[in-house]
């Protein structure tokens, strides 16, 4: 199952708390604004020369073809990886994947591992599983170091520490680095170059000492058995080349059939994620190469709910996701609440659909996620592989509703809709209802708590399980004192 931050409340509760944190909102607004501007510039450049929409269509088509023939592609990937000297493992869920990685580390008496930034290892809770066995897992991506040293949780797919500002990061480095390795230098400032330099020095001894490294993969090319990692700092290259043993945990949806089909994805990903034409570091490795890099390579192919998502005809498009985070950076909800409110390592619009698809509905926290959206559609417009997130959100909302039809609130709602259908299906009944609402409107207009535009009054809070929640956060306009039919009759169609 997809990892969830233990103890996180449902999205509305978590979001309300986040909205009260003005520093968080400032950090998010600044960071997402910068990323959006960089991305827009690079997308416009492609639009002018090649056609961004054509590139999006090509990327979506590649992922769809790979998913339609997933079994064939995975079998070929295993065959090519094995032929190149890698050991391939299959994991149905997080527990199996974690057990495999722990076993490999123990076989080599490793007391620590270094890690390339990996969403999938966060999804399965690998760091915690290793720690439970006395093995330290060191994150090496700058943002991940900040999160780890700060005893924090990631809040963004691309920039896990987006909720932190430079001053906070400096304090974390000064307070925590010396407890787990090389301390922060004296007089450390909050300049980005100084902070990056401190992280580099802190990590160097870990890179040189580690026997085992753990990575994910952005893509896996079936025809050659090649894994691909794209990153911006060079820490990934260090993890992938220095240790003797490399374990790569790869979601089964990451497979693409061929190098040719990898091409549009490598052009879409950097522009959509970091606002760059290409990543500074694109590392590829195919099994074991004698005398060069790790001499023992393990690849864990992970399901963990992905076949469940694949079986969902509407939701399966979420498996196209290349983890660029473009949808987060344009989402008005994410920008105001941050990633922690989603209660998972996959936050934002993609997290709002991916988590329920991987885990299934039925849990209160997960069931709240499809509603963490205004359905404005900005996420679909930004997605480089054209995942129609609003469509999937609506689809998942219907599943949540279907799963709660026996609840008291749902029963009351059903009764209310049946009552409305009864009234609206007959003109006489509708006329009587309009008279009643007119009377209610005259009363509420007199005692309403708020004046709306146009001088109308708003009703106060309405009692009842559903109505109380709805009206506690919204101004419900009081019904008009006179219905249209009554006005028409009184004025003879507006002629009097």
Shape: elongated
Count of individual helical segments: 23
What level of helicity do the residues show? 40-55%
Instruction: Indicate the mean pLDDT.
Output: 90
Protein model, in words:
- This protein has 496 residues and is of the alpha/beta class.
- It has two domains: 11-307, NagB/RpiA/CoA transferase-like (Rossmann fold, 3-Layer(aba) Sandwich); 427-491, no CATH class.
- It contains 23 helices and 13 strands.
- Strands 1-10-7-4-2-3 form a six-stranded parallel beta sheet, with helices on both faces. It has a four-stranded mixed beta sheet with strand order 8-5-6-9.
- The longest helix has 28 residues, at 22-49.
Précis, in short:
Strands 1-10-7-4-2-3 form a six-stranded parallel beta sheet, sandwiched between helices. A four-stranded mixed beta sheet has the order 8-5-6-9. Strand 11 (450-451) and strand 12 form a beta hairpin.
Write the layout of secondary structure elements.
Layout: H1 11-19, H2 22-49, H3 52-68, H4 70-83, E1 87-91, H5 94-107, E2 112-115, H6 119-123, H7 126-132, E3 136-139, H8 142-149, H9 166-180, H10 192-209, E4 212-215, E5 219-221, E6 226-231, H11 235-241, E7 245-251, E8 255-256, H12 259-273, E9 281-285, E10 296-302, H13 306-310, H14 326-330, H15 332-337, H16 348-359, H17 364-368, H18 378-382, H19 389-403, H20 408-424, H21 427-447, E11 450-451, E12 457-459, H22 465-472, E13 476-477, H23 484-491
Parallel strand pairs: 1-10, 2-3, 2-4, 4-7, 5-8, 7-10
Antiparallel strand pairs: 5-6, 6-9, 11-12, 12-13
Helix pairs in contact: 3-12, 9-10, 16-19
């Amino acid at each position: 199952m997809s990892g969830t931050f233990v103890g996180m409340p449902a999205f509305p509760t978590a979001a309300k708390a986040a909205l009260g944190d003005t520093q968080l909102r400032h950090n998010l607004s600044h960071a997402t604004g910068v990323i959006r501007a960089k991305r827009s510039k690079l997308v416009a450049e492609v639009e002018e020369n090649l056609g961004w929409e054509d590139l999006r269509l090509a990327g979506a088509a590649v992922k769809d073809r790979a998913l339609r023939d997933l079994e064939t592609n995975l079998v070929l990937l295993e065959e090519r990886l094995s032929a190149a000297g890698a050991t391939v493992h299959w994991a149905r869920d997080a527990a199996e994947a974690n057990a495999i990685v722990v076993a490999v580390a123990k076989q080599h008496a490793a007391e620590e591992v270094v890690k390339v930034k990996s969403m999938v290892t966060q999804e399965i809770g690998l760091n915690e599983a290793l720690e439970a066995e006395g093995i330290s897992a060191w994150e090496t991506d700058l943002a991940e170091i900040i999160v780890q040293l700060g005893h924090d949780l990631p809040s963004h797919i691309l920039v896990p520490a987006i909720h932190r500002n430079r001053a906070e990061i400096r304090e974390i480095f000064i307070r925590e680095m010396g407890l787990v390795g090389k301390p922060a230098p004296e007089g450390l400032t909050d300049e980005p170059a100084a902070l990056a330099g401190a992280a580099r020095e802190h990590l160097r001894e870990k890179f040189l000492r580690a026997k085992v490294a753990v990575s994910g993969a952005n893509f896996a090319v079936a025809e050659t058995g090649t894994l691909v990692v794209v990153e911006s700092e060079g820490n990934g290259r260090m993890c992938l080349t220095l240790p003797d043993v490399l374990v790569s945990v790869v979601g089964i949806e990451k497979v693409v059939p061929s190098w040719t089909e990898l091409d549009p994805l490598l052009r879409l990903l950097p522009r959509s994620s970091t606002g760059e034409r290409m990543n500074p570091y694109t590392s590829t490795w195919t099994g074991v190469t004698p005398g060069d890099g790790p001499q023992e390579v393990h690849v864990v192919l992970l399901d963990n709910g992905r076949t469940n998502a694949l079986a969902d005809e509407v939701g399966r498009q979420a498996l196209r996701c290349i983890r660029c985070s473009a949808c987060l950076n344009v989402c008005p909800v994410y920008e105001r609440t941050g990633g922690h409110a989603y209660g998972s390592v996959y936050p934002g619009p993609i997290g709002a659909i991916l988590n329920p698809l991987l885990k299934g509905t039925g849990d209160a926290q997960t069931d709240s996620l499809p509603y963490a959206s205004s359905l404005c559609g900005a996420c679909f417009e930004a997605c480089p592989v054209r995942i129609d997130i609003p469509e999937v959100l609506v689809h998942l909302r219907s599943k949540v509703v279907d799963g709660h039809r026996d609840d008291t609130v749902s029963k009351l709602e059903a009764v209310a809709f049946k009552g409305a259908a009864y009234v609206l299906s007959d003109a006489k009944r509708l006329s009587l209802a309009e008279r009643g609402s007119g009377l209610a409107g005259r009363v509420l207009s007199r005692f309403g708590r708020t004046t709306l535009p146009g001088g109308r009054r708003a009703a106060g809070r309405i009692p009842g399980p559903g109505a109380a929640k709805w009206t506690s956060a919204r101004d419900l306009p009081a019904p008009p004192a006179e219905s249209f039919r009554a006005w028409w009759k009184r004025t003879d169609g507006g002629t009097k």
